[in-house]
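Q: What does the assembled structure look like for these inputs?
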Amino acid sequence: MLPQNTPANVACSELFTEVSPYAVKKEDGRYIITDGTGSVPVSLVPRPKYYGLKTSTGIPFSKISAFHGSYTVITPSPRCDFFDRGIECRYCAGNFDVKDSGGRVYSVEEVLETVDAILKEGASGIIYLSTGFSQAPDGGIEFLKPYIKAIKKHHNCLVAVETLPPKEDRWIDETYAIGADSVLYNLEIFDKELFEFLCPGREKLIGRRRYMDALERAARIFPNGTVASHLIVGLEPPGSTCMGIDFLTGIGVVPILPIYRPSTGRALRIEPLTTEIIIPVYKHLYRAVKKNRINFNWVRDLSMVTTPLEVRGLVDERDGTKKSIVENFYKSKIGLKTAWGLSTLRRKLRVKDSRDPSDSSGQS
Amino acid sequence: MSVEIDTRPLWIILALKSLRPIFFLLLAILFWYFIKMPSPEGLTAAGQNAIAVFLICLILWVSNMIPLAITSIFAIILVPLLGILTKKETYSLFGNEAVFFILGAFILAGAVMHSGLSNRIALNVIKRYGYSPKRLLLCVFLLAAALSFFMSEHAVAAMLFPMLLELAKSLKLRPGKSNYGKFLFHALSWGCIVGGVATFLGGARVPLAMGILKETTGETIGFLDYTVAVLPLVFILLAVGFMILTVLYPIDVAGVDNAGEVIAKRLKELGKVSFSEYAVGMVLLLTIVGWISLGRTLGLAAVALGSVVILFVLRIVRWKDVEDYVNWGIILMYGGAITLGSALDKSGAAAWLIKGVIGRWSGAPWTIFALVSLLTIFLTEAMSHAAVIAVLLPVVIGMAGKMSVDPVVMTYSVATPAGLAFMLPMSTPANGIAVSSNYITVRDMIKGGLIMAIISWVLFNLMAAFYWPLIGFGRLR
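A:
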């Protein structure tokens, strides 16, 4: 955990970390992160207790979920059909590479038990459901629907959903209507040619244009700042990433900029960018988000990759290190409940079921 | 689930949402005021309460803030609660003959539709006569009208709609653009509307009107008498309506061969005529004969329900086959409307209203007839047909007595025009179904509907003035 309660996921086993100037050390019983010239205090996020427990069917909760501090990721089906077709994204770490009959689909009951345990312990306030690519025109939301509905039925928690963009907008509307509080359609790469090259499956079966249209639609449906899309820094020129930032913020989407970490054994080997190249991109991100008046508090709890809020200190030195009262409030337990309440109220106001079952009663 | 997301600014949505509680709060205040205000001269306390209930129901029926049936239930609660009628009187009015006639008609229509008989008749008529573009349109128009003589016009529209949609697609008509498409779906809705006023069976509104008439005056109108009185209007409106559509939407297709293929395919799917189709057809025929010959002595409801019993005794239909066709909402609505009409009459409120408000028109019965029918035609565009009857008829019947006008004639002035709603999709389900095809826009419907509404009113009054005296009916005393 970095200062200001900023969670970070520190790579340590990948090859590229061998040349990293940073190291996590323990000094006087406390952890610090240092580059040899200076240091900042950090802390280790304790392993949640529920990780040691199992579902009633005997599956460890740690297998179903991945704890990330403020949010916990649950992937009910660890499958992505891109792998079956050999058109997976070239940079993919392979988490969904379970080919053919591999990869068990967790039942709604198993996922619900996991969520029960997470929330009971108070480990995270947000449940992040994700799915890989499937042939379905809905982008995967029909598969996640029973999970979302069950979680929303039993718990007052926020739910974020990461799927592929559906073929038709009505599925985006449905994603919001069934209870998702946030949605992510990860474009990953903005440059057209690089997108085609690095994401052959996405290009062939979904299309870059559809990503953009779906994100634009989602930004009109979901609350300000709850629609996000990853743009991976390091897979395309920084200028292209900045153009992606401008496009996404222009349509009301929060860009999240993870830095590419080449996985051991993957075909795509790109040297990580230096800090000098990366920092201007993040500054651009912060300014673009501010300029388009997008609320970026929400995504900070949804990502351990860099979001606009983390780079505030680089740009806005005046209040960069201070969190506002509102931010602090929404980090608290009562704040999370309030966020859930407001999100639910907004949904209640916005969603209209086009079936009108009763009002024609008596028409003749 | 089919969802729609309202993307308007939240403050607008919130403001609109808050209108509903504000509406009900204001309604409650208004109701309280009407009840508690000092009684005007000549009006009893029960009469004042009856008017208050009537006004509240009027507002709820017009605004459609709650389903019409629920408004009726609300009236049934309020009438005994405010001492207008006793509990026994109130609830017994729900057992009115008209309510049971409607129930019987629903079950009969359900049996006809479930057996597939209505679908087969429709397909065969179109196959036989609809071999050119114009004849196909005429065929649809007349078929919709003819079927609405015997079944609820809503049921006819719902039954023919999928077939017409398929025809339109097979002819490659462009939704919203094709004249032929507009004509085709106007033919459906107008045919149903015009045909629906021809008999007691086209909709449940005429039986409701008869129920109110009987409850307040003891008089009634026979099945055949009603049809004889309005049939010329129906024929003329069908001719005029077809001419208007021909002028508004000149035919823009060369042939209808593709439509023939669709019909042939549908007919093939139906197979040979089944026993249940024969049986239901026979029972329906006997029912109509029964209504004509025994309607006055046995009552229309008894004939309808008798036929229903026969259907079940002979095991021609099962309850689960027809229960979906019984619109309990309408039945509840009618029960409440009859109760309310009776409450206005028995409490003296109707008489007081007429004396104080409309009494000044006493010298011009034809003016009243014309104005009431005009008011009905325009109200029915915005309100349910049944609600228009429930609102207007008790007052109009009371007024008839005061003006020395035959209340039976005044019943026609509301009952018939109440079915002539051509202008808006919300006016009647037939219009809503036609617009849902996307071949007709609301603007198209208003354009043709306005012309048709005005012509209908003129023709209805001309018929009352010149045709009714010829058949010895409708003398305005």
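The first strand of chain B starts at residue 3 and ends at 5.
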